[in-house]
Amino acid sequence: MSNLERDTAETRCGGAGLATAVPTHEVLEPREVPLGGPRALVVRRTLPHRDRRMVGAWCFVDDYGPADVSAGPGMQVPPHPHTGLQTVSWLLEGEILHRDSVGSLQLVRPGELNLMTAGRAISHSEESPAERPAGLRGVQLWVALPDAHRQVDPHFEHHPDLPRVVDRDIAATVVFGELAGHVSPATTYTPIVGADVELGPRADTFLPLDSDFEHAVLGLSGRPEVDGVPVAQGTLLYLGTGRRDVALSAGDDGGRFMLLGGTPIEEELLMWWNFVGRSHDEIVQAREDWESGDRFGTVVGYPGDRLPAPPLPGTPLRPRPRVPRR
Ligand code: MN
User: Fold this and answer.
1) Distance from the CA of 78 to the center of ligand 1, in angstroms?
2) 61 Cα: distance to centroid of ligand 1 (angstroms)
3) What pTM was computed for the model?
4) CA of 271 relative to ligand 1 center, distance in Å
5) Ligand 1 centroid, distance to 195 Cα (angstroms)
6) CA distance readout (Å), 217 to 22, 94, 224, 285
7) pLDDT tens by residue, 265-295
8) What is the domain range of residue 218?
9) Cα-to-centroid distance, 272 and ligand 1 (Å)
């Protein structure tokens, strides 16, 4: 996924002052963002949000579909660069073909994790394959790399077998990090959790959490209630830190959501376009390197041109407040 928003301001995120030190409820409504191009797929974005930039190391949350992609181009995200982050691609329905500059060519399918670690530099593309199911539904999430690891070699992982936490009312897939003692095989660089949680009809249960983490849930389908709060599809409910568990319930149709959590990031980060860095100069350099063809390698086989970088803001950059004003 590429960030194609018109607003090209840099976003400051991180800083321990941002995490709420106690359990809380904060509903973050999504904004709709077209992915670009004719008949573009529209995604619902909840991070970064005006009121909250990160949850643990999670710094970008896009949710899309259900969409019928049987006609037209479907999802087409031309080659574009990334630095300083990992991308977590998770499908609920349909297929996407991933290509990248370290030579990966991988079909993304529901229930399988595609994880791309950009480290110091990678480029990739995402496309609906020519032969494909009609439906498309998924999420794409970014995880910021901590300073000690953000220059790692770029690499790609495909994990078709992920641990499941199954009980009477609940079935959770541990996509990334650790949940209730179950650990995803994917490479992580900070204490973190990302899990796809399905609640059965009339579920009434608890899920154990790491009380050092801050958590949020992204509504996927149905009408799950988390700590008594209904979570609509595409909405992010921020839960704060300091929870040893959370109450979960659902109506007759059950419900599904993504649990996202992790240790609050104390480093201050700078996000612009598809780059996560630490300084304005670093972002400017990454943009120049993409435009000049250096550093980010080549994506082979994508049927189209690569994405040009948007212009940097023409006015002097004004850092956003570390703690959003309330
Ligand atoms: Mn991308």
Assistant:
1) 9
2) 12
3) 0.92
4) 13
5) 21
6) 16, 23, 10, 35
7) 888 899 999 999 999 999 999 999 999 998 9
8) 19-262
9) 13
